[in-house]
Design goal:
Blueprint: H1 8-21, H2 24-33, H3 40-47, H4 51-63, E1 67-72, E2 75-80, H5 84-107
Antiparallel strand pairs: 1-2
Helix pairs in contact: 3-4
Length: 109
């Protein structure tokens, strides 16, 4: 994988994307949308959060094009707009797992 050059303009965009993904409920929402589209009500049930809170975070994810919304009748269905977000999460999770394994080996855990 090649290295992407970062200039001042895209550094801010990258930082914004990390800030958007830095909220656990947003990651949970994305995780719930990984396999299928869902309504706000289904996401509220799946996350255990409140409807206003889920709606607020969906609006942020929608504004940053991480999710998309499709209106059908009286319901809006949300789905992942940028599946590359899961690749990023896999990279981060892999790094965390490797660091924890190294700590276990170092400290005999």
């Amino acid at each position: 994988m090649g290295k992407t050059a970062l200039n001042r303009g895209n550094m801010e965009s990258v930082a914004t994307r990390f800030r958007i993904l830095g909220v656990p409920l947003r990651l949970q929402i994305l995780n719930e949308l990984a396999d299928q589209e869902r309504t706000v009500g289904a996401l509220v049930e799946a996350t255990g959060s409140t409807q206003p809170n889920v709606s607020k975070h969906l609006a942020t994810l929608l504004a940053h094009r991480l999710v998309k919304r499709e209106k059908r009748g009286n319901s809006a269905y949300y789905s992942v707009a940028d599946p590359a977000v899961f690749e990023l999460c896999e990279i981060v999770c892999g790094n965390i797992e490797r660091a924890l394994e190294e700590e276990r080996r170092t400290f005999g855990g």
